[in-house]
Automatic annotation (TrEMBL):
Residues 177-370 form the Ribosomal RNA large subunit methyltransferase K/L-like methyltransferase domain. It comes from the Bacteria. This is 23S rRNA (Guanine(2445)-N(2))-methyltransferase. Pfam families: RlmL_1st, UPF0020. It is an enzyme of class 2 (transferase). Gene3D superfamilies: 3.30.2130.30, Vaccinia Virus protein VP39. InterPro entries: RlmKL-like_Mtase (IPR000241), RlmKL-like_Mtase_CS (IPR053943), RlmL_1st (IPR054170), SAM-dependent_MTases_sf (IPR029063). SUPFAM superfamilies: S-adenosyl-L-methionine-dependent methyltransferases. It comes from uncultured Gemmatimonadota bacterium. Keywords: Methyltransferase, Transferase.
Length: 393
């Protein structure tokens, strides 16, 4: 694909990496480690960056859901104004004739409140610039957006008559690394598992144990971090997952290849410390092993079938990070008190001095553990408000 003049001359893009609420500081810290200075904002982090930084963010961000690029900002109180501005947007930068397009439109406190009518005008503006499209649809919100649709997504937001249009560069949501096909009950998103590890301040070279690992998301994300594997390369062959920007007419494919090659060269051959996962459900451990094999990190993990009371942490100091059951249904909390108490008892007996970090929805259950906790962050998991409780055993 041809490179555009603007990209050759180092054009700055208005980039925004969306996160779950509460994870913005973690994503900003990730970007700083990548040499990208970004400012946390409600719902994500923003920065002015190059195309290569955009590719890097998609490949490397562990806690972000999606990375978008600013296409236009304008005010419109009539459909005539919307049409005039929309037709000036260089849509051909992000979508070519014959591609499919998805729109996600929201309008709050604006004269133009009919989201379907807004979408109709924007789609017309796109076709006027790029030609006929293979298809067009108006998408729901990101909560249900789990597919790897080939359509190019544009996000159109009206707030108080101000319109912001953004082009999605990620495609499928970034938590879809590709390795998790086998799932246990109540699967944890990969982005939140990574956030729990980062929020616990696990250094990557100390022992780590998840005593209720389910389908293995926390241990697998830990192994990826410990080995310096970009989440976009979480496959046994270390081929990157697909991103929407790869289909853009003006993508610098040579720069993308450089980003991927640098990431492959950064991978360490093995995790420097033990990473353990256990669960009393044999089916969960079977799923965890299959997922770890797809991610290319099975050899870095020790996965065993065991109840919490039978865990055997490695000697010395380490981290215990887990996503225990929350008990959100009526009557479940009482049944879980014993589980949390058993976790605390076992940790004090076998892992003194360890850091304990739990993704939890209930402070009263945290209290059963008997460890003084502080919240590292608050967010949502599957619509449930949760926090990461971190303490020293």
């Amino acid at each position: 694909m041809a490179h555009t003049e603007t990209q050759r001359h180092g054009e700055r893009l208005a980039v925004f990496a969306a996160t779950a609420p509460g994870l913005e500081p973690l994503a900003a810290a990730e970007l700083r480690a990548l040499g990208i200075q970004a400012a946390p904002e409600p719902g994500g982090v923003a920065w002015s960056g190059t195309a290569e930084e955009l590719y890097t963010a998609n490949l490397w961000l562990r806690t972000a859901s999606r990375v978008t690029v600013g296409a236009a900002e304008f005010r419109a109180r009539t459909f005539f104004e919307l049409e005039r501005h929309a037709r000036k947007i260089p849509w051909e930068r992000w979508v070519s004739k014959g591609r499919a397009v998805r729109l996600r439109v929201t309008s709050r406190k604006s004269k133009l409140y009919h989201e379907g009518a807004i979408a109709e005008r924007v789609l017309d503006a796109i076709e006027r610039r790029v030609g006929s499209l293979a298809g067009a649809e108006v998408a729901a919100d990101d909560e249900g957006d789990e597919d790897a649709s080939d359509a190019q997504l544009f996000v159109v937001r009206f707030v108080r008559d101000a319109c912001i249009v953004r082009a999605d560069s990620s495609g499928a949501l970034l938590h879809l690394r590709g390795y998790r096909q086998a799932v246990a009950r109540a699967p944890l998103r990969e982005t939140l598992a990574a956030a729990a590890l980062l929020g616990s301040r696990w250094p990557g070279d100390a022992p780590l144990l998840d005593p209720m690992c389910g389908s293995g998301t926390i241990p697998i994300e830990a192994a990826l971090m410990a080995r310096g594997i970009a989440p976009g390369l979480a496959a046994a062959d270390r081929e990157p997952r697909r991103f929407a920007f790869q289909e853009w007419p003006d993508t610098d494919l040579d720069a993308w290849k450089r980003v991927v090659e640098r990431a492959r060269n950064a991978i360490r051959p093995a995790a420097p410390a033990p990473i353990l996962g256990s669960d009393r459900d044999a089916g969960a451990i079977e799923a965890a092993s299959a997922n770890a094999e797809r991610a290319g990190v099975l050899g870095d993990l020790a996965l065993t079938v065991a109840p919490v009371s039978a865990i055997e942490p490695p000697a010395g100091r380490g981290w215990m990070v887990s996503n225990p059951p929350y008990g959100v249904r009526v009557g479940e909390t009482d049944a879980l008190r014993n589980l949390y108490a058993a976790l605390g008892h076992t940790a004090r007996e076998r892992a003194p001095g360890w850091t304990l970090a739990l993704l939890s929805a209930e402070a009263r259950l945290d209290a059963q553990v008997g460890v003084p906790f502080a919240d590292a962050f608050q967010t949502r998991n599957g619509g449930i408000p949760v926090h990461l409780a971190v303490g020293t055993v």
